[in-house]
């Protein structure tokens, strides 16, 4: 049993005995570890920020839980089979969760492995941009996937993830967030989440895919770039990040499984319904050119179809979309 | 001056004084290094396999050069500006030159860096296959490129490289080799070279690209899989591998520069002319499906266009092509 596993079990035991004191002896017996170990782990949990009361003859009781995305907190009650069920690497601060997950994937970490951080010093956005990642409030996570897809299906994996995150945010907060193709999630016109997908690939096979997401959960808006908002700012209350993250992982696994079995088609109609740009006149700054027209469809590979109002329909795989006045 | 640089200079000095003995003093004066250094480097070169005669009062003379792809051999007389002008990492045996180059690229090795080996223990082919890489005879090389392209342009980079390698092989050996789309080079119906492109990428930007090539140069055919041949077997004589490699690097740089300025279009017609499958009825095993029809075009992104004889034209990005009887 790893340290993280044991912490998870102890916390689970507390949760089952909600509001009551539990004795060290009960924990020791239930988890089949020595009393000395229980004592040691209470101390470790306190170091992690858990406030644990100890009363002679009554035992231990958790008074408060730290607002942290520890793997053993996220795993508690997580109803998935793969995603989040492997190692969850937690960092107070890291350069970029995507970079760390990429390294781990190179070292053959299995699908479902997660890197999560309380803050990022060099959070990455698309095409070399930054994702501002202040501590205490955001979810900055990267998930290792090893899908059996070709390179041109990668944009659709991003969309599959976007739909899952949108669902989870709606479930937990009730906010009507929308997807701004290809990789942002908006609340009204403001950015609340960005997704960054990175791959190692050969032309006809993806070796692995890193799905990174930065979500402004309880982040004070003053710490975010202009044009951004946070879920707390929109709802007016703090959101339990571990709970939101569990919901995201469950929706992700659900969507990803469907995608693996049936392809992008299965998520496509929901993806279109959630899109904030379909039906609008858009201007897209793609890699080396600008495309203007009406966004009329998201095709079966996740490309945006833009119609120039005349004869031409263009398939766009990625780019910066702005909606222009009709 | 690195060890490799100094070796290169000493060998260049010998070459300029062809057939004559050169004194240690002349070398020392010309290269501005001490006599002790010259002596030390003669010894190092002998360790590398150079047969160097030393005659009192006459000096040194190179009697024979080892058949090795040392960086300082390849660089001697190499007329490029970038490709092969950075570090050339030479290995007697390595698991895979592509893997090593990928690592180096992650560590920010610049465009033009090369890994070359005399043999590979786990030479890589497409989609997890092996590239048989016996010692003494092949060229196994991987080149780091950092092109400013989108992911869907990667197949065209492979074709740009294939055209360059074909030209170099023709120049040096006179053999009429052809390109078997997407990544093999054939002599008749037999494989003489395979190219493996691997990338690190985001959906709309390639971070770096590893261009790997395995070429059966002087390899005894008995050591190769069925359906393969070597340049030596086709011509009847041994080919100077360092010279062939220089030619390849020069053609590569030439083609790659054109590609960067003008895109794939500039190489496309030559690519089509060199293709062994265009105009033929083909059966392609792509990722999850089989495509049958007539290969009628290579489009502006490097995809193969297959016509089903009726209404449908399909774009294929990669796969195993076999020519079926007409």
Structural features, described:
The structure is a homodimer of 326-residue chains. Chain A has 326 residues and is an alpha+beta fold. Chain A has three domains: 3-64, Winged helix-like DNA-binding domain superfamily/Winged helix DNA-binding domain (Arc Repressor Mutant, subunit A); 71-273, BirA Bifunctional Protein, domain 2 (2-Layer Sandwich), CATH 3.30.930; 281-323, Roll (SH3 type barrels). The first copy, chain A, contains nine helices and 14 strands. Chain A has a seven-stranded mixed sheet, with helices on both faces. In chain A, a hairpin with a 5-residue loop joins β11 (290-298) and β12 (304-307). In chain A, α6 runs antiparallel to α8 and α6 (154-173) packs across α9. The longest helix of chain A has 22 residues, at 241-262. Chain A is elongated, with a radius of gyration of 22 Å. The interface between A and B is medium-sized, with 29 and 29 residues. β8 of chain A pairs antiparallel with β8 of chain B.
Please tell me how large the radius of gyration of chain A is: 22 Å
Our count of helices of chain A gives 9
Outline the low-pLDDT stretches of chain A.
none
CATH topology of the largest domain in chain A: BirA Bifunctional Protein, domain 2
The side-by-side strand order for the widest beta sheet of chain A comes to 3-4-5-9-8-7-6
Second rung of CATH, namely the architecture of the largest domain in chain A = 2-Layer Sandwich
| Element order of chain A: H for helix, E for strand | HHHEEHEHEEHEEEEHHHEEEEE
Oligomer: homodimer
Q: How far do the termini of chain A sit from each other? A: 60 Å
- Proportion of β residues of chain A? 25-35%
Question: Which structural class do the helices and strands of chain A define?
Answer: alpha+beta
- What's the story with the biggest beta sheet of chain A? 7 strands, mixed
């Amino acid at each position: 049993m790893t340290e993280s596993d044991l912490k998870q079990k102890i916390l689970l035991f507390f949760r089952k005995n909600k509001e009551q004191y539990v004795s060290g002896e009960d924990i020791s017996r239930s988890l089949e570890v020595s009393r000395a170990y229980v004592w040691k782990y209470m101390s470790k949990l306190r170091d992690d920020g858990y406030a644990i009361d100890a009363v002679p003859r009554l035992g231990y009781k958790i008074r408060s839980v730290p607002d942290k995305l520890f793997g053993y907190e996220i795993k508690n009650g997580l109803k998935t089979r793969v995603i989040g069920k492997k190692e969850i690497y937690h960092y107070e601060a890291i350069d970029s969760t995507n970079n760390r997950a990429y390294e781990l994937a190179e070292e053959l970490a299995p699908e479902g492995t997660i890197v999560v951080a309380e803050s990022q010093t060099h959070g990455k956005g698309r095409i070399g941009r930054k994702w501002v990642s202040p501590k205490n409030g955001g979810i900055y996570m990267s998930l290792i996937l090893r899908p059996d897809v070709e390179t041109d299906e990668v944009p659709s994996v991003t969309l599959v993830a976007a739909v899952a995150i949108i669902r989870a945010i709606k479930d937990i907060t009730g906010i009507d967030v929308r997807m701004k193709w290809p990789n942002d999630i908006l609340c009204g016109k403001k950015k609340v989440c960005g997704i960054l997908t990175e791959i190692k690939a050969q032309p006809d096979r993806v070796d692995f895919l890193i799905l990174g997401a930065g979500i402004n959960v309880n982040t004070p808006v003053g710490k975010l770039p202009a044009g951004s908002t946070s879920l707390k700012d929109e709802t007016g209350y703090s959101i339990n990040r571990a709970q939101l993250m569990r919901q995201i992982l469950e929706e992700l696994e659900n969507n990803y499984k469907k995608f693996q079995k049936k392809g992008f088609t299965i998520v496509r109609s929901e993806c279109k319904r959630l899109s904030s740009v379909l039906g609008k006149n858009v201007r897209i700054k793609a890699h080396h050119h600008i495309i203007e027209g009406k966004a009329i469809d998201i095709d079966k590979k996740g490309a945006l179809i833009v119609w120039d109002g005349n004869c031409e329909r263009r398939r766009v795989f990625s780019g910066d979309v702005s909606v222009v006045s009709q």
